Amino acid sequence: MKKLSHIFILMLCIFLFVGCKTTNKGNNKDEQEQEQVKDPVKEPVKPVASFGGELKILMRNPNTLNPLLNNDRTVDQVLKLVFDSLFLLDEQEKPMPNLVESYELSSSATTITINLKKNILFHDGEELHSDDVIYSINTIKNASEDSIYKVCVENYKRVSAVDEYTFKIYFDQPFAFSLYTLNFPIIPKHHYDSNENSTLNPIGTGAYSFVNFATMKELNLKANQKWFKGNLYVEKIKGVITRDKNSDSDAFNQKVVDLINPTKFDWQHYAETKGVSLTEYDTYYYTFLGFNFNNNILSDKNIRKAIAYAIDRESIIKNEFLNHAHITDYPIHPISWLNKEDALMYNKNIEKSKELITTAGYSDSDGDELLDKNINSVKQNLSLRLLVNNENPLRLNIANKIKEYLEEVGFIINIDSVDNITYSQKIMNKDFDILLSEWKLSPIPDFTFAFHSSQIEEGNNFINYSNVDMDRILETIFRSTNEKELLTAIGEFKNIIAEELPYYSLFFRTSAIISNQKVYGQLNPSIYNNYRGIENLFIFEQ
Fold first, then answer.
1. N or C end of the chain: smaller count of CB under 10 Å?
2. Domains and CATH numbers, the chain
3. What pTM did the predictor assign?
């Protein structure tokens, strides 16, 4: 009996064990189903534009926050969010009214009368008036030579108020690009003329108003709810102060800032980086070959054209810039309204290049497999020095590629690779045959500085180029009083460049604004206004 009891108890335990095991199995299934309900696959949330958030951008430590006295480009970019200008450049790099309701240029182009928009308020609530513009112009005139906007007022003789909203600027001489010069920030007279702390307490009419500034740390801005252009999405902007260019990328990679604009050509690696977006735009960085007209080989335009036809610009852009550059035959911004789409004249053509060399009188006269020509009864080989700055590895690569192209058609090219100081000295002394260089051009498309014969001795016409027709057309461009006249003159300017080829244009580089994944919307940046289109940006964090 006791044995049967033991068996019964054993069977009961087995039954309970099996039952418990079955029950647990069912519970696990329920738990799994519950977990699946609790943790569904998250679908990406569609970004929705709304007011709020903070955008962190870069800048250097400012000496002043008065935009008209500032001389740092990174500070200027940030201050463009605080201050507005009379005119802005549109998507075709053409001046368009901003704070201006209407304007009239006199028939002689020696004066311009400007009517301001009404009810434009500074951040302290005071209205914008003519006196503020006059005060701004006089501030620039009295600023140091390194002030960013000093060049804008060089042709201004004087300025006077007509009434509260109307003023007149008198020019020293007629200038076709007067509207381009009216892009300087407007500051309020009542604040800057009487406030001793105004240099670090900026007040403008712009999209964002000043909150506070901590030296070597940050500048804080907030959205201007009364901005005349309408509503903004980004509520706050923080200007994070970095020491130098080298620390900018680190700040972005470590998410200290949300948006950067690399100044070197080092932004391409971000194209494959997850979680970032790029907004590419055309810069004013113009790369070219300059020919020294004191050289008796290069003084023949057939040789200059032969050089142009020998070079494969498309290959250079593809291999060195990953196609992030625009080929050009002229030093005019690729998207400018002055630079209509023209077919490129100097695509690579080996046969044409060799033909022009022959036309110039060069041949292998003595069978040494080198092209030569008798010049002033002296045999001279087709040999040239190409000056390049070896502290720019990219440009040195391009110089070596150009050497390869030119030697393919019979030139002997010796690369004169020197440091930056020696490079500048050689340019000043005109100690080169061919120069590989780059200019950061101004938005004001006046090329007198490079092409006019008056600039040979003391200006930037370091190639010694002198042409009476070019001088005449540059003067016509400078004095043009209407768009039709200007476009006609620009067309003639381009024709002379194409025929004479004083410089061989290579390309304009592009750059990019790089932002992280919480920044949405589309900027319309330019090299002189990185944050153009700030009203389209919004912050959205998943």
1. N
2. 52-258+518-539 (3.40.190.10), 282-365+373-510 (3.10.105.10)
3. 0.85
